[in-house]
Design brief:
Blueprint (H helix, E strand, L loop, with lengths): L3 E7 L12 H12 L2 E10 L8 E5 L2 E8 L1 H20 L10 H21 L5 E5 L6 H7 L5 E5 L7 H4 L5 H4 L8 E4 L2 H13 L3 E2 L5 E4 L2 E7 L6 H11 L3 H10 L3 E6 L8 H14 L7 E6 L8 H21 L7 E4 L5 H10 L2 E4 L8 H8 L8 E5 L5 H4 L4 E3 L4 H12 L3 H17 L2 H13 L6 H5 L8 H9 L8
Parallel strand pairs: 1-2, 1-5, 2-4, 5-6, 6-7, 7-10, 11-12, 11-14, 12-13, 14-15, 15-16
Antiparallel strand pairs: 3-4, 8-9, 9-10
Helix pairs in contact: 1-17, 2-3, 3-4, 8-12, 9-12, 10-11, 10-15
Bound molecules: the ligand O=P(O)(O)OC[C@H]1O[C@H](O[C@H]2O[C@H](CO)[C@@H](O)[C@H](O)[C@H]2O)[C@H](O)[C@@H](O)[C@@H]1O and uridine-5'-diphosphate.
The site of uridine-5'-diphosphate has 16 residues, from helix 12 and helix 13.
Length: 491
Amino acid sequence: MSRLIVVSNRVAVPEAGKTAAGGLAVAVNAALKERSGIWFGWSGKISEEPSERPAISNRNGVKYAVIDLKEDDYQEYYNGFANRVLWPILHYRVDLAEFHRSDLSGYIRVNKIFADHVSKILEPDDIIWVHDYHMMPLARYLRERGHKNRIGFFLHIPMPPPELIQALPRHGEIIGALAHYDLLGFQTESDKENFGRYLESRGGQATADRRAYDIGGRRVKVGAFPVAIETESFARRARHAMRTNFMKDFRSSLGGKKMVLGVDRLDYSKGIPNRLEAFESLLRTTPEWHEKVTFVQITPKSRTAVPEYAEMDRYISTKAGQINGEFGDVSWTPLRYVNKTYSRSALAGLYRVADVAMVTPLRDGMNLVAKEFVAAQDPNDPGVLLLSQFAGAAAEMGGGALMVNPHEIEGVALALRRALEMPLKERQDRYQRMMAVLTDNDIDHWAQTFLDALIEPSQPALDSLLSRPGSMRSSTARMADFHGLQRPLEM
Ligand SMILES: O=P(O)(O)OC[C@H]1O[C@H](O[C@H]2O[C@H](CO)[C@@H](O)[C@H](O)[C@H]2O)[C@H](O)[C@@H](O)[C@@H]1O
Ligand SMILES: O=c1ccn([C@@H]2O[C@H](COP(=O)(O)OP(=O)(O)O)[C@@H](O)[C@H]2O)c(=O)[nH]1
């Protein structure tokens, strides 16, 4: 059987006695356990002279290969281009993008470093699965190093319409380079369609079923593969969590009040300010809920070196203090705002006792918290998911969640009140609808569906069949036109 080589910015090497954190870690580990393979990426560490060879470790039958980055690489590639340019633009926040040529150079440099390392370990029948916006041009650099392997890419974050992608300077070299993959996976149909329209704007031709595009002499397949969770084991984890002292103490601290929960990295895409303002609006307009509800907002800090994140931190801390100052009492703190990271078991227990989860991103690739919350519920007394229409999860959970537009604070406040007062029968019906989706598409299904589509042989691009040998320009030349490489990169 061919090996699976997974490449991503972060590699979640499991620590002894700890469970893998986050959906990507669980999914990749599950996929790798089924096949022999390697997970390659950044160690998360900075060093002055990174070793020429990746550090290798083996855990539970999975091989991990990680490299350190230099300080400049970390600043330009990760903090700079990935998180100050690609992240905001792909989350529809062109206004927050801060483009510098040096950051783009750093991004390309790190992608080439990754390509050099992966190139050394590749065997001809290996299958490569690349994850996320940090690694968009990787396939191009692997192709330049002569590799013809099947290479798939999954984008965990949104793909906006072409008009927004075009705001990215040199977008052809980064987003356009995705055409070097054999399969591109997106979280939703709408992300997939947006990318298709972008390819068309650059001369790509869709096949009749719009499941592939011919461009630059290559055929690239596209599909929506909504990322999933380990539904059954997460539900079990939530049941077990209720027996822990942590959960017993937490429940007694609630003193019988209803509980509303938010769990998000501190990120402007997550809509935390809007959510707090909606809670504030509920308290202002509905005094009967005073002293009867506690809002718990768990917000681990994230990407703290990026200025926009530090600003968010200040705004949210101030807002939380103001809500508690205005509405709280010596016997009641309306909002508990914490910046700690909790284990998945602790989170599972918190989800299970929550009466409402507020998942209100302004834009989100998927939002696994929405799915984990549903999986953790007690079927006999489930909580309500209040979900933004702009989360990728809305495409699957929309049938059971209370849908909101996070930009309309009063609407969110009304939905919160409705969720807090929802009768049991309606809560159960909604829970069952969402749980059916999560059972059908669990994490194993997600990984398997993507890999099946990647392995399935694709048809060659039509123009590569039609071109006469004498007149045909090399596919490298056609790809160079496509990337717009007439202007050489200054690096
Ligand atoms: O690695 P960081 O910079 O600390 O950020 C954490 C991860 O954030 C993003 O998560 C996304 O993937 C989720 C799973 O598919 C999805 O549910 C969510 O909507 C996305 O925002 C990022 O894409 C990851 O690469 C980061 O590791
Ligand atoms: O204190 C925390 C907060 C979050 N998470 C996990 O982090 C992931 C967040 O994924 P999501 O898709 O919601 O957002 P992202 O942070 O990837 O943008 C989920 O699996 C959470 O269970 C965690 O383990 N501990």
